[in-house]
Write a structure and sequence with these properties.
single chain; globular; about 90 residues; 2 helices
């Protein structure tokens, strides 16, 4: 199966993946992102104001992948801001 893998165009260069976390308020989106990116758990609830950002690195088949996670606020007050930020993330 490894023989069928396409050759990398730029060896050594890391790949970047963007992920957007969206959902209702107070469901744990930020807690999951903090746990995944920072390896810690936040037990106190702090509402996300607008957008937050997390980053981590993973290795797949000897290649480094940077995972950028955008944490969108879940409260309806911030819905309009979410629309604007989604365009910027692309």
């Amino acid at each position: 199966m490894e023989a069928n893998m396409p050759k990398r165009k730029e060896p050594g260069r890391s790949l970047r993946i963007k992920v957007i976390s969206m959902g209702n308020a107070e469901v744990g989106k930020s807690c999951i992102i903090k746990r995944y990116c920072e390896k810690r758990f936040v037990s106190k609830y702090l509402a996300t104001i607008g957008i937050d950002y997390g980053v981590t690195k993973v290795h797949v088949r000897d290649r480094e992948i940077k995972v950028n996670i955008f944490d969108m606020a879940g409260h309806p007050f911030f819905y309009e801001m979410r629309k604007l930020r989604r365009r910027e993330v692309k």
